[in-house]
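Problem: given the chain below (169 residues), write out its structure.
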Amino acid sequence: MTEGLLSDVFFDRAMARWSEGLRARETGAAAESLAESMAAFGVTPDTLPALALSSLVEVAWSDGDLDPPERSVVLEGVEAAGLAAGSAGHELLQTWLAACPPPELFELGREYRRQLSADLSVETRFRVREQLVDAARSVAEASGGFLGMRAVSSEEEAVLEQLDEDFGL
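Solution.
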């Protein structure tokens, strides 16, 4: 995963725009609802990067069980994407790894990625999608299946397909 691209797109540029909107509590029912949903899950302007990477957690929990190898790959993936250990976002993500979050959190992450993607050029959107899907696939493959067969479960594959669709390409 290329740290610079995901960091630039999801964290630096996009987080600044969304953070300002959340801090200002933009008017409008949709913005208020989104801000309230984020707050309900502990997402603040400082933890937005965790929300952008929530798909890695969703893949890990999609089959109902998060294995130690999946946990390790999630942490490697988020750290490679620029979410530093010890940061507020990393700590929030750790809570999502400790106990499976509700589906509404993952839907919120999808909406966040869709909104961010809408502002990107097609080329940048393609590259970010490719990196995020590759990282999520690494999580899905971490458990390895049985003798290398069925390394990715049908539940994990469904999450990967949804993640791919989030970018509207």
